[in-house]
Design a protein that fits this description.
Blueprint (H helix, E strand, L loop, with lengths): L22 H10 L14 H8 L3 H11 L12 H17 L2 E2 L6 E6 L5 E10 L10 E7 L5 E5 L2 E3 L3 H19 L8 E7 L7 H8 L8 E7 L9 E6 L2 H11 L8 E3 L14 H5 L5 E5 L18 H18 L11
Parallel strand pairs: 4-7, 4-8, 8-11, 9-10
Antiparallel strand pairs: 1-3, 2-3, 3-7, 5-6, 9-11
Length: 342
């Protein structure tokens, strides 16, 4: 989430960088953390949807955060090799899930940056075609930014802004939603686009580039669902910020079932911060697309080197990602969500 001079709480004690985790070992860890044997959720879901929701697990989410926020990613600043590595990781997971590439047969949507240094950054885009011939030409974009702040002056031996919550948590949820949706027996009626955005921290540049050069028409995009910072603060509450009362009603209908997932949902507990304008859904809202931001908000490690993997609440992240999947399914159902004319 981009900073606009907000105040955060006290800073925790920085720690030394973690040892590198070999890629094969990391993938083995992800493969070993599958669907849990928990009791039914009690939400009255169709069996395949219930399986999809339950396939989003604390273990897999943690493994993704650990990969995205690993020291080897060097803080994922746009542009740079760390961000390139994160983009490659996202692309590989999209491919494994069975998504189709979303940029004219390619996965990466490249664009040029001039700050903090000149170079090429890339969004990563995959998609699932809708099952209803009458609505598959309409698109819901679900997104999370995967860039962060890179490295800075060493403090207590740690120079890396790992960005585990901001936004390793949202990126992990994006990957899990993609896998869960791709495993459904019947895809949603509308098409769903999964976008990992670069250069959010430079001012929403990746999502702005997507919105201005959309591989799927903005005019046919019916909603933006963005996830940014999901795994901190109160363990049993999450905020869903909205661009309009109409799309907010979709979120509120899902929120009414949030108790079964162990969550209370609030529309905006930080109204003075104007967070709806400070993450990638805003690039779509500016184009007339209704948008939602799922976020657990700011905390004392925000934009600090102390935003590390061991400080995320993985149980909360599982609950939030599952709730986000239910919101996404409703947005992709034309019987539930019909946007107003621009």
């Amino acid at each position: 989430m981009i900073a606009h001079g907000v105040r955060v709480g006290r800073i925790g004690t920085p720690r030394a960088p973690a040892r590198a985790l070999p890629g094969r070992a990391l993938l083995a860890l992800i493969a070993a953390t599958g669907c849990s044997s928990e009791a039914p959720l009690g939400l009255g879901l169709a069996p395949d949807v219930e399986r999809a929701v339950r396939s989003i697990t604390e273990g897999e989410l943690t493994a993704h955060v650990r990969a995205i926020a690993h020291d080897s990613m060097a803080g994922r600043r746009s542009p740079g090799p760390g961000e390139d590595a994160a983009a490659a990781y996202i692309q590989a997971r999209f491919q494994e899930a069975g998504l189709a590439p979303g940029v004219g047969g390619a996965w990466e949507q490249e664009f040029e940056l001039f700050v903090p240094v000149a170079g090429i950054a890339q969004n990563v885009v995959g998609w699932i075609e809708g099952s209803d011939p009458a609505y598959r030409s309409e698109f819901v974009v679900v997104s999370a930014h995967f860039d962060h702040l890179g490295t800075g002056a060493t403090a207590s031996g740690d120079s890396i802004f790992n960005g585990a919550d901001d936004n390793g948590s949202g990126t992990a949820a994006l990957l899990e939603l993609a896998e869960a949706l791709a495993a459904l027996e019947t895809p949603p009626r509308r098409s769903v686009v999964f976008a990992g955005f670069a250069a959010e921290e430079q001012g929403l540049l990746g999502s702005s580039w997507y919105a201005s050069n959309a591989p799927f028409p903005i005019a046919a995009t019916v909603a933006s669902l963005n996830m940014d910072m999901l795994s901190r603060n109160s363990p049993d509450s999450i905020a869903i910020l909205r661009s309009s009362p109409a799309i907010g009603a979709v979120a509120d209908a899902v929120a009414a079932r949030g108790g079964a997932l162990g969550l209370t949902v609030a529309p905006d507990p930080w109204p003075g911060e104007d967070l709806i304008r400070r993450s990638d859904q805003w690039s779509f809202i500016r184009e007339g697309v209704d948008g939602l931001l799922v976020t657990s908000g700011l905390h004392e490690d925000y934009h600090r080197r102390t935003d590390e993997v061991d400080r995320i609440d993985a149980v909360k992240l599982e609950r939030v990602a599952r709730l986000a999947l239910l919101v996404l399914l409703d947005l992709a159902d034309p019987d539930v969500w019909t946007p107003a004319a621009p």
